[in-house]
Amino acid sequence: MEHYLCTTCGTQYAASEEPPAQCLICEDERQYVNWKGQQWTSMQELSNSYSNTIRQLEPKLFGISIEPDFAIGQRALLIQSQQGNLLWDALPLIDDSTIGFIEELGGLNAIALSHPHFYGAAVEWSQAFGGVPIYIHTADREWVMRPSFEICFWEGPFFDLWEGIQVLHCGGHFPGSSVLFYPHGAGGRGAVFGSDTLHVTMDRKYVSFMYSFPNLIPMSERKVTHIYNTLKDLPFDRIYGGWFDRNILSGGKEAFEKSVKRYIQAIQL
Ligand SMILES: [Zn+2]
Ligand SMILES: [Zn+2]
Question: Given this model, what pLDDT does residue 187 score?
């Protein structure tokens, strides 16, 4: 039996003898199936050719991403804190050197996931640290491809972790899409981890909003307004996007407000 991983989205599946017939994440209209046809790999095979790179972003904040490029290529974020460490989003690969690095920082207390494109091999990450809870908004329950006891579905508009760290339910890109508020980020000015909900654009001055990024399906005004209303009262100065260097390092709150306004104007024209 093998927990196969899709090579296009990096999602790990429940154990099976043969690779699954299809990847439901890639078959969804927000993603796409490999142009050469559906392909799978295993954790062992992945670890032969890839590794995770870890960069310190702030005194107690680290980014982790797979290298060279694989699947969606998202960057997970690791918060180190007195009350335990938190991983925001997960990656397809978990290997001994990554585990060793995190153990030296004090291990892992919990994993929180923004949306199904960034689940990766979250269950395997959890189990590498003794089976820590994996928090997913209940609205994305149907998109869990590797069910496990570690997964805890949360409900409602927000979920409090510790030290003021909060996950906020925004919806839009996926029904359960969420962002993380990290009050100690940006030297105490506050940071938001936007993932695919606040997608930092290439000029790093704005964020944008899409139902599908690869297939260019925009998000409705109603949904963007809901995201705005969910985040507008949070004190933050920095937005960490979903990839290395895709951040708005200062003026993030103003950038968010300008972005919502610009986006809604654009789709109304
Ligand atoms: Zn896939
Ligand atoms: Zn996404």
Answer: 96
What's the mean per-residue pLDDT of the chain?
98
Judged against a pLDDT cut of 80, whether residue 269 lies above it is answered with no
Asked whether residue 70 carries a pLDDT value surpassing 90, the answer given is yes
Ligand 1 geometric centre to CA of 42 (Å): 13
163/29 Cα distance (integer angstroms): 38
CA of 115 to the centre of ligand 2 (A): 7
Ligand 1 centroid to residue 164 C-alpha, Å: 34
Whether pLDDT at 17 is above 90: yes
Protein residues within 5 Å, CB atom, of ion ligand 2: 117, 196
**CA 43 to CA 32: how far, in whole Å?**
22
Position 127 confidence tier, pLDDT thresholds 50, 70, 90: very high
Q: Which helix (H) or strand (E) holds 248?
A: strand 247-248
DSSP per-residue string spanning 119-167: -TTHHHHHHHTTS--EEEEGGGGGG-SS--TTEEEE-SSEEE-STT-EE
Nearest ligand, CA 219: 2
Which residues partner with 63 through β-bridges? 55, 77
Residues 6+ apart with CB under 8 A from 28: none
| pLDDT of the residue at 198 | 98
15's tokens: 């154990």
Maximum alpha-carbon separation in the chain = 53
User: What tokens does 148 get?
Assistant: 């496990």
Query: Distances in Å between the alpha carbon of 192 and those of 64, 98, 169, 172, 186?
Result: 17, 24, 13, 17, 10
